[in-house]
Specification:
The structure is a homodimer. Chain A is α/β, with parallel strands linked by helices. The first copy, chain A, folds into 3 domains: 40 residues, no CATH class; 136 residues, Response regulator (Rossmann fold, 3-Layer(aba) Sandwich), CATH 3.40.50; 133 residues, Rossmann fold, CATH 3.40.50.2300. Helix content of chain A is 48%, strand content 17%. Chain A contains 15 helices and 12 strands. In chain A, strands 6, 7, 8, 9, 10, 11 and 12 form a 7-stranded mixed β-sheet that branches. A 5-stranded parallel β-sheet of chain A has the order 2-1-3-4-5, with helices on both faces. In chain A, strand 6, helix 10 and strand 7 form a beta-alpha-beta unit. Chains A and B meet through helix 4, helix 6, helix 9, helix 14 and strand 12 of A and helix 4, helix 6, helix 9, helix 14 and strand 12 of B. The structure holds a DNA duplex.
Amino acid sequence: MNAPLTLRDIARQAGVSLATVDRVLHNRPGVRPDTVRRVKDAMARSAFQPHAAASELARARSRRFAFVMPLGGNPFMQQIQAHLGELANWMAARRLTADVVTTDVFDPAVLAGKLEDLVGRVDGVAVVALDHPSVRAAINDLVESGAKVVTLVSDVPSSRRHHYVGIDNIAAGRTAGALVGRFAGGKTGRVAIMAGSQGLRDHAERIFGFSQVLAAEFRQLEVLPVAEGHDADDRSEHLMRKLLAEHHDIIGLYNVGAGTAGVAKALTESGRAGDIVFVGHDVTALTRKLLLSGVMHAAISQNPGHEARSAVRVLLALARGEPILSEQEAIRIDIVMRDNLP
Amino acid sequence: MNAPLTLRDIARQAGVSLATVDRVLHNRPGVRPDTVRRVKDAMARSAFQPHAAASELARARSRRFAFVMPLGGNPFMQQIQAHLGELANWMAARRLTADVVTTDVFDPAVLAGKLEDLVGRVDGVAVVALDHPSVRAAINDLVESGAKVVTLVSDVPSSRRHHYVGIDNIAAGRTAGALVGRFAGGKTGRVAIMAGSQGLRDHAERIFGFSQVLAAEFRQLEVLPVAEGHDADDRSEHLMRKLLAEHHDIIGLYNVGAGTAGVAKALTESGRAGDIVFVGHDVTALTRKLLLSGVMHAAISQNPGHEARSAVRVLLALARGEPILSEQEAIRIDIVMRDNLP
DNA sequence: TCAAAAATGAGTTGCGTACCTCAAAAATCG
DNA sequence: CGATTTTTGAGGTACGCAACTCATTTTTGA
């Protein structure tokens, strides 16, 4: 009844020596196919799993990961870094280190340079990536060098990165669209979109999804041309003010990226806060306040703690050659309203 | 710069022997307070963390957990069990086993009996608990016996359980209320509530939160008396049919528990599906279909995979005396619409 | 059939910790 | 001060696996 517990038991069951079991387990050469089968059968028969701790201890490798993140005050990115900090003990107990490298991710050459610097120096890299040929090439160089690479928040699907930790931004935009549409409650009017830049892949995808849903399901809502606030508060505020002044029939507002403080300020000072359905992204101190005060109606969010942990777990699993629990690592699109604020 | 890596290094730094470091690390008696301090200082100074794998290997204990779950076809509970099954390899590699014990959780005596049976036989228990004195006593007996206990989905706050894996059901109800209220778009009318039973703690809490929000923020919506479908499809269908026939001004519907198939059937056959805002719970094959077809507008959900993994992780951490990553283990209230279906 | 190649067995060492014993040293007390 | 108790040191074993060496057996091919 009780399954054999160690490699020794498997060896006995298969009628081979420990050495041969080891060879099979690690795909080392020099074992006849027939013998391989016998060993694998024995393992399968007793549902054998190597003892994870023993295996890790025997390897006794420490691993070095690097997180390449944007410079500047983007609250969401800072949250990810904060959560990374909370993982320090967990990682230390597993002899892992994670260095954060900040860089201007909007400049492909700079970003690619930072990535190239890491070639041969780390076991794994998580990078908030710009989708650009030189970045793609740098990622591929890293992969070539044996490092494991995950993209974080923003993907570079055409690269050879091993994994993407982040949400489907088209679906996120669609979700925002559905919320604005439904919350508008059948009324007719215009909807404003404030984005950082349509050149950013994630922003562009969100806008695409948003517009898609409004066009398909909420014909009574007309989408205004996208305003680009560059994720900056002042610029966003200015543009928002202008939009509100020009259009008195705005009943919905989708803030695609950051710059939320500016948007909210303009909206509040117009006196139309609460009446205009306002949907934005990410749960920060600010959006939390706006949700509670009723200025903002919903925030689309990806959990920064989950993303930090997932990136580390995935890099570790990749480095160890362990399987990835895909369901665990999938980042969900969270809809956050006042009543389910985390 | 590089931190010492092993207990040996700590011993050297503190000027004591390995044995003394071991005594301090495990709070064993027979060490002078002064010596304890020196050792702890040395650990702190170099931010020492014992190697997790080595520690686990040296203990070399296998642990037995039990999951006490409801009998019957509740899809959500089945999902949790399925996800538990997916963890089998992960657990096996850590020499953990999780036995699922099904029982009639609606009968306090039966449930308490099952729990008492486990006293002294397991290292940890996760239980979908009924909040009843005899169940509480059984939980306390388990804790007394040294087992770690987490409540799952439904809590027993007054017991000595170590942890609760599940959502805040009042907040979940409030969230449902906000969604129904907003989706109704300012229209006036009645809102129906279908629950399993108001005797179930989680259902009662959800109804409380739901009613709270509607009363406070959506005065134009009048809540009808709660119908109790006992989480059964046929009974729910019958009650729903009756409600729809009696009230032609129903514009919102909140399905608090299971029995969704019956509710949806009655709603669809009334020809009013899509017009009546329908919010329910949990993402199952059925609710997924209903969301996609537009019959259901939103589902409040707690991630069953997350709950299964969290229960196991928390039990393991408790058993090992490791800290719990509270942010990781918090179960979020997910709002799921057609566009962010996982 | 015999030499060469391939496959396998047997064994060792080390990973870092937990837990144990026993002796020696230091502190405490009357 | 000596006797007793407390504290500390030294050392060993075990945990299960990875990674290696080297000898031996088996298979293969000419």
